[in-house]
């Protein structure tokens, strides 16, 4: 088949590499210009550089709705478009242009976690598995019929970086198997159960702010979901912002006001957490390592020299 690829960052790069390694012909790649958005500078392998290295024509677009792009697509005469991590809506005149339509690769187990940053949201929410879905694009974002899904488990200590590496390794096999099914006429498209659908927005720095009224288990997952190289989960201590780099749920149960810097436990310092903490029924968050605004990292037992005071959402 003749294939046009739409994609961006490492997800798009892996998809293009899989297409280049296949028996199909990549006739054009469309990608976004480089961005200064904090989340778009992470996992930023260049689709444009890979395409140019292999002699594939490249178009740079923020939005795919101009006459020049549509004309180039028609001239390329693709049998299929494959998209992964394209950041803006593809119009119907684009995704329905090829005879086989557009195959979108999305890093969640649709219909759950449609939209943006699915791995981060899934880890925060305590999901037991994550994965990759290949589905046919339609007019509703991430809502088209599913061709193929592959899943991996989420371990108790996994960070979002762990899940990224595990799921990005699924892209090549999912793309290759999907294209073989489509080219051979064996593709079976399964409609999504829209009653199970969920849709999440893009992450921003505000989403990394710790709310100490959350249970400690939820905050601990937030810390793992905002590990390096992502912007870390943060809070404020004595008016200064600090990032929580490593944490755990406490062994003991601690009562009091959420955010209170309370007591040492093991190799960390317990912070009271949860709206029911006043009853002494909840576990606290053991903060183990913090990072200050100058980039210096400290053991929490060194940073919190005395107990008392509070960690707060804002200065």
Features:
single chain; 315 residues; alpha/beta; 7-stranded mixed beta sheet; 8 helices; 16 strands; Formyl_trans_C; Formyl_transf_N; Methionyl-tRNA formyltransferase; Formyl_transf_N_sf
Concise description?
The protein is α/β, with parallel strands linked by helices and 315 residues long.
Radius of gyration: 23 Å
Largest sheet, spatial ordering of strands? 3-2-1-4-5-7-8
Can you give the mean pLDDT?
A: 96
Shape: elongated
* Straight-line distance between termini: 57 Å
The total strand number stands at 16
Q: Helix fraction?
A: 25-40%
Low-confidence stretches: none
Order of helices and strands: EHEHEHEHEEHEEHEHEEEEEEHE
Strand-pairing-aware structural class: alpha/beta
Q: Hey, roughly how much beta strand do the residues contain?
A: 25-35%
Number of helices: 8
Query: Quick one: biggest sheet?
Result: 7 strands, mixed
What does this entry look like structurally?
This protein is α/β, with parallel strands linked by helices. It is built from 8 helices and 16 strands. The protein has helices spanning 9-21, 47-53, 67-76, 92-95, 118-124, 160-184, 216-225, 300-303; strands spanning 2-7, 25-31, 58-60, 80-84, 102-106, 114-115, 129-136, 146-153, 199-200, 234-237, 240-253, 261-265, 268-271, 283-292, 297-299, 311-312. A 7-stranded mixed sheet has the order 3-2-1-4-5-7-8, with helices on both faces. Strand 2 (25-31), helix 2 and strand 3 form a beta-alpha-beta unit. Helix 1 (9-21) runs parallel beside helix 6.
């Amino acid at each position: 088949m003749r294939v046009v690829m739409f994609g961006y960052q490492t997800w798009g790069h892996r998809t293009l590499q899989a297409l280049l390694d296949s028996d199909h012909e990549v006739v054009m790649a469309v990608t976004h210009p480089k961005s200064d958005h904090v989340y778009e500078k992470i996992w930023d392998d260049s689709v444009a550089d890979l395409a140019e290295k292999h002699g594939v024509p490249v178009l740079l677009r923020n939005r795919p709705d101009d006459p020049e792009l549509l004309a180039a697509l028609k001239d390329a005469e693709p049998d299929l478009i494959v998209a992964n991590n394209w950041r803006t809506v593809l119009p119907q005149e684009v995704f329905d242009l090829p005879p086989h339509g557009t195959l979108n690769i999305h890093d969640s187990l649709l219909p759950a976690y449609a939209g943006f940053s699915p791995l981060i949201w899934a880890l925060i929410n305590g999901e037991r598995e994550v994965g990759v879905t290949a589905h046919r694009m339609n007019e509703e974002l991430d809502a088209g019929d599913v061709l193929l899904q592959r899943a991996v488990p989420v371990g108790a200590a996994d960070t979002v970086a762990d899940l990224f590496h595990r799921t990005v390794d699924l892209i090549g096999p999912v793309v290759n198997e999907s294209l073989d099914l489509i080219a051979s006429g064996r593709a079976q498209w399964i409609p999504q159960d829209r009653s199970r659908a969920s849709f999440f927005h893009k992450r921003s720095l505000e989403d990394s702010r710790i709310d100490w009224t959350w249970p400690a288990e939820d905050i601990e997952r937030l810390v793992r979901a905002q590990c390096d190289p992502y912007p870390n989960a943060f809070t404020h201590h004595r008016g200064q912002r600090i990032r929580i780099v490593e944490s755990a749920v406490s062994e003991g149960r601690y009562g009091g006001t959420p955010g209170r810097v309370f007591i040492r436990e093991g190799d960390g310092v317990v912070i009271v957490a949860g709206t029911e903490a006043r009853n002494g029924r909840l576990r606290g968050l053991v903060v183990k390592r913090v990072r200050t605004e100058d980039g210096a990292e400290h053991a929490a037992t060194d940073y919190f020299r005395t107990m008392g005071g509070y960690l707060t959402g804002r200065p």
